[in-house]
Write a structure and sequence with these properties.
This protein is mainly alpha-helical and 309 residues long. It has 14 helices and three strands. It has a three-stranded antiparallel sheet with strand order 1-2-3, with no helix packed on it. Helix 6 (139-154) packs antiparallel against helix 8 (192-212) and helix 6 (139-154) packs across helix 11.
């Protein structure tokens, strides 16, 4: 029981996630891996034949303990338990299974780390350096500036930017159609700096595509005219973020731009629910983590409202 194909119930669940629930490929892969791992664990735990109906909470707690001993992060263990809960709900609905031992199992308590973000001075230095590179460089530097501007202007995820197609961008209305987690679509505004960088990139890209004969579909392409992979986008942004002086640059990554987008909006007084929609968060609690980093906004409110501030 080491693979999903050898367990019909898991295979059916994975197909349900992919084709009916439209979960992202990343989620489908992670859930399939977690369930295959649990099935393999049960084979050893029960020492022979076992069934999904016969699994109890002790077995699940033992599995979570084994995951912890193997060094799995608490967040990953919580995801694994979530996969098992969803799987049992699927069995309840499709196999008439009446039990869900994962439902009552306590989720591992997560360490809530604050998102790493850039302050305003770092943003200014980052974009000044990227603009200098674009003015002195060629196609790659102009493209990387456009990606950087779009990341910070819209707060989109790495996978969302890599999946953008040309029709998704409307520079007349200055907006972007984004396909997020679970293939959910949302519309986000594009700032004027990002729009200007995109227009400059378009000119370089169209010349390159005419030379390579590639079709105009993917928004961001390589020098060969093919769609940039998420890894290629990640490396390009790492090169720009790494230019920040000192050790600070080594702490930053693509997602730091998304964190900066949210933090700076909240610092300026943006509504939390509006930021939730822009980020594409399903739950407001996910967005609320950014309120802890908005010290500047809280100080401003305090000094304006407190009579003896």
């Amino acid at each position: 029981m080491t693979g999903t194909s050898s367990v019909p119930e898991i295979a059916a669940f994975v197909e349900f996630l992919s084709k009916e629930r439209n979960d992202s490929p990343h989620t489908v892969t992670a859930y399939a891996r977690d369930l295959a791992d649990f099935a393999a664990f049960c084979g050893g735990y029960y020492g022979g034949a076992w069934s999904w109906a016969g699994v109890d909470r002790l077995a699940i707690r033992a599995w979570l303990g084994a995951l912890q001993q193997r060094g799995l992060a608490k967040r990953s263990a919580a995801r694994a338990l979530s996969a098992l809960r969803s799987f049992y709900r699927f069995l309840n609905a499709t196999r008439s299974l009446e039990v869900n031992p994962a439902k009552a199992t306590r989720t591992p308590k997560l360490e809530r780390s604050l998102p790493t973000h850039l302050d305003r001075a770092e943003i200014d230095r980052l974009f000044a350096d990227a603009k200098r590179r674009a003015e002195a460089g060629g196609f790659r530097e102009v493209r990387d500036l456009a990606m950087l501007e779009l990341f910070y202007s819209t707060g989109i995820r790495l996978s969302e930017l890599a999946g953008l197609n040309e029709p998704d961008v409307d520079l007349v209305s200055d907006q972007l159609k984004v396909r997020g987690k679970g293939k959910k679509e949302r519309i986000v505004p594009v700032g004027r700096h990002a729009a200007r960088a995109l227009r400059q990139y378009y000119r370089r890209r169209d010349t390159l595509l005419a030379e390579t004969g590639q079709e105009r579909r993917a928004l961001f392409v390589s020098r060969r005219g093919t769609r940039l992979t998420p890894r290629a986008v990640q490396l390009a942004m790492k090169g720009l973020l790494g230019a920040l002086s000192g050790s600070r640059g080594r702490e930053l990554h693509v997602h730091s731009l998304r964190h900066s987008f949210a933090t700076h909006l909240l610092d300026a007084g943006a509504d939390l629910r509006a930021v939730q929609e822009l980020l594409g968060h399903a739950s407001l609690s996910t967005t609320q983590v950014y309120t802890h980093t908005s010290v500047e906004r809280l100080k401003k409110v305090y000094h304006q409202a407190h009579p003896r501030a």
